[in-house]
Design a protein that fits this description.
- The structure is a single chain.
- This protein has 125 residues and is of the alpha+beta class.
- The protein has one domain (6-99): GMP Synthetase, Chain A, domain 3, CATH 3.30.300.
- Helices cover 55% and strands 18% of the residues.
- It has helices spanning 6-25, 60-72, 74-84, 100-124; strands spanning 36-43, 49-56, 92-97.
- Strands 1-2-3 form a three-stranded mixed beta sheet, with helices on one face.
- The longest helix is centred in the C-terminal third of the chain and has 25 residues, at 100-124.
- 19% of the residues are buried.
């Protein structure tokens, strides 16, 4: 199976949906921030490994705590994933903090500041 095949894309989507459901509804760890979402999932073609990119709406400490909580809950999450998704192998899950949304918001603020400054300069002329 190739990396970008239709089958692999479907598996990625299904695993992402189930991981989101497990994190939101079944994990009771207080370290995991309630505003945690699974942004994307990449399952290798041999179904052995899985990278789950997560986004946490909160400060840096909340992000660190959430990643630690998820790492400690990996065996439970993997077991629940095995029950809910029928795959030949249940992949080993690695959680990666995705900061692209935060980066995009930061860039948007910078662009707004620059355009505001340019607007002020044009009004003075």
């Amino acid at each position: 199976m190739r990396k970008n095949s239709i089958k692999n894309t479907r598996i990625n989507g299904e695993v992402q949906k189930e991981l989101s459901n497990i994190i939101r509804n079944e994990i009771k760890d207080p370290r995991i921030h309630p505003m945690t979402s699974v942004v994307s999932v990449e399952v290798t073609p041999d179904l052995k490994y899985c990278k789950a990119y997560i986004s946490v709406l909160g400060d840096e400490q909340a992000q660190k705590d959430t990643v630690e909580g998820l790492k400690s809950a990996v065996p439970y999450i993997r077991r629940q994933l095995a029950h809910s998704v029928n795959l030949r192998n249940t992949p080993e899950i690695r959680f990666i903090l995705d900061q692209s949304i935060e980066y995009g918001v930061h860039m948007s603020h910078l662009i707004d500041e620059v355009t505001k400054d340019l607007g002020d300069e044009n009004e003075e002329d």
